[in-house]
Every structure is written in C-alpha cells, then in structure tokens.
Specification:
By secondary structure, the protein is an alpha/beta fold. The chain has ten helices and 19 strands. The strands form three sheets. Strands 8, 9, 12, 13, 14, 16, 17, 18 and 19 form a nine-stranded mixed β-sheet that branches. It has an eight-stranded mixed β-sheet with strand order 3-2-4-5-1-10-11-15, sandwiched between helices. A two-stranded antiparallel ribbon has the order 6-7. It is globular, with a radius of gyration of 20 Å. The two termini are 37 Å apart.
Amino acid sequence: MLVGGGLESDCRPFFDRFLELARRPGEAHVVVATAATGDQEEAAIEKIESLRSWAPLVRVSVIRRETPTAETVAIVDAATAMFFTGGDQKRITERYRPGDQPTPEWEAMRRLLARGGVIAGGSAGDAMMGSMMFFTGRSAQALGIPRTDADPEDPLANKVGPQLGPGMYFLPWALTDSHFWERDRIGRLTAALAVMKDSDRPCLGIGVGEDACVEIDLRTGKLIGTTPSESLLVDADGLVRDGKSLRGGLARVIAQGDRIDPILWSKANAAPPQRPAGALREVKVVEPGQDRQLASWQQFRQASAAGAGPIVVRLDGWQVVAWPDGRGNAAFDVEVGQ
C-alpha cells in the first residue's frame, strides 16, 4: 500500500483496508518500522495511536534502526502487516538493503509478502518500494535546471538530473513517488522514467498524493485506488526527448475504487494522440491555503475529460501541457525553458 505522505489519522478508507489486509493471514499483528524517521519514538507513538483509533485491541510492535537483526527478523516473521513511517528513504535501504544487497531483515519482509501479508509505507515508506527509488531532488533539478539555493556542502543538492538509487524491490515494475501533487513532482517522475526507459528498465510510475493511498495486489498486478485523495499512473513508453523537454507522456488519474491492470493499460494505450492545436488554457498556481489548491491535480483531472483542450500549468522554468486522449487518460508534454 503506497501512501503519499501527510496521512491523517481520520483517513478511514486507508485504515479500514490496511487492517482488513492485516487480518487476512490470521489475527492482526502490525509492525511499525521507523527506520526512515528522525524522531523514531514520536513516529511510533503517532502511528500506534492512529491504528488503535480504528482497532483498539490490535497488536502492534515497533522495529527501529537500532533493533538488532535477530529481534527484527523474529518480529517480522510473526507479523501480518508492516507500516514504514516517513522521513528519508535512504535510511531504510541503508538499514535493510545496504549496498543494494539482501539482509536477513529484508528476507523476512519478503516472506511476509509471500504468505499474504501487507507492507504499507508513507512518504519515504512509499518512495522506497520499487527496485529504483528517488534519493532527493525537485522537478526543476531533475529536468536539468540548476538550483540557485543549493547547499554547497550537499553533493546531491547541486546535481541536475533525477537523483535515483536502488530501492527495496517490493514493487519491481514501477517507480513510486510521494507528495506528488503538492510538490509538483510530475516533472521529476517523468524525467526519471525517461532515464529508466533509456536503460531498458520498466517505464511505469505511480505518483501518490498526500492523504492518498494506492493498493497493489502483487498476485494479480492490479492497482486499486483506496482513498478519496487521488494519485497518478504515468506511462513513459512513448516519451521522446526534445532538448531538455520530454514529449509523449500518458497518465491516468487513480480515483477511489479504480481497479487498473497497469501493464494491460500501458499496452492498450501505446500511442498517445498528438497535442491538439489551439490556445492553451492555464491552471494558475497559487499558494496552497486551507482549500489545498493543487494545480497539478486540477490539470490532470480536467485534461482526462473528453472534449477538453490543451491545459497548461506553468512553474519555475518549466511547464506541463496536458490534453485528453479520448479514453479517459491525459497525454502530456513536460517543457523546459518555456
């Protein structure tokens, strides 16, 4: 279960489904894994209280970065579900797959999935799910636009291009991203998928919004929208480079209740239509307020509707133009320097 961050304790659709899956192998035993988080104790308490709001008697254990290997393996082997808290996803892989190598803890997590358990993660716990993951980076930086406020002592902050590295291999066919709409991450996800396409890696991406969840059934490969807050499935198969710009992307908004076979969806929509002629209608970006204005979500939601013309969202040094493909999807270009 991919959670894009900002998960509220009152997000009943997520907690109901997570606990339902946790009970599927038997009596629920949830493990909260805090490896990604700076203040591990605070994160553990917050997640335990959230879970017990919906299941007061649920059994919950905690594994921290410092939990010894033997103890971690024993706890995970006794569990029916795991939840990785947010923070820095590199801390997760450094603890459980250092040097991109398996560990006893990682093998125990794989056994959990194999016996029908569930692994969920929020923010960093979402980003680490694939065979590749984002280390850091903004969309502009991923698209080749240098930062003007970079920390001179942080080598990753000064690089351009997608900042990628090995993930946890729980979801091998997709690259996952979090805080997707709120941080305008369509640029960095598209740039990363283009790099993966160049190296013949899988070219599907899943961008998950805040307080949103996408469930993946690993047995069938189906992708399921779990929450009212929405996410985006992105196909990079048709992407072509135009300088720093990327053209020919295809996306599908993932709404609550949607059940999508991503591989079949990609094959069925292999040729996105050309951008229609005509003036671009702009969705203005304003500072998020109480109504959580999300220009990127509005753009893709509107551009998925039949009859819509090309819609643009202009950002700092780059822009996205999206338009309907006539099949409920949105074709799009990411343009740099417009």
